[in-house]
Amino acid sequence: MERKAFIGIDMGGTHSRLCVLDKEKNILHLEKLLTLKLISNGLIEGISSLIDEKVHKLNLQVERVIIGLPATISKERTSVLSTPNLKVDAHEFDSLVSSLESQLNCKVELERDVNLQLAYDVEALKLADKNVIGCYVGTGFGFSVWINNDIYVGANGVAGEIGHIPYGDHGKVCGCGKKGC
């Protein structure tokens, strides 16, 4: 008998993580891998192969998949508007949700990675009734806003996304291709 499960993927600029949870939020599988390795054969192929392997190995029926990205995401949470720290062409994200939904027969959603992190932190620290701003540092900087017991995404779905912060015209080349971001 297949177990019902939820899959979360956190794609970072350097590392990606996969977590498989059952309905009671017990961790069934946790894995960390290099993002470049995950997407080496293409974004959709990499993610679908990773999920497919776990579904078969653990005998799962996937109820929902959520993919956290260091990106600006559409308000509908189905497409990526910008992701300078992932070495993936944005058009590869265009059919990611529909491809995975068709393959897995479940809901697939994209979300800003920092929104997922802040939601976790708010729950873990019991801050749901507070207004909170989260600032996270990884390959880049990410900001998220929690207001009225929920992540605030704003009118266009990008609240908290502050974009690049110029600090001079020197240094390493940014994921966007420019220096000083």
UniProtKB/TrEMBL annotation:
Q: Report the superkingdom from the record.
A: Bacteria
Catalytic activity, EC: 2.7.1.55
Keywords, in A-Z order: Kinase, Transferase
Q: Which InterPro entries match?
A: ATPase_NBD, ROK
Question: Which terms does the record give in the GO molecular function aspect?
Answer: D-allose kinase activity
The record ties this protein, via Pfam families, to: ROK
- Name assigned to this protein: D-allose kinase
| Originating species | Vibrio maritimus
Provide the organism lineage as a comma list.
Answer: Bacteria, Pseudomonadati, Pseudomonadota, Gammaproteobacteria, Vibrionales
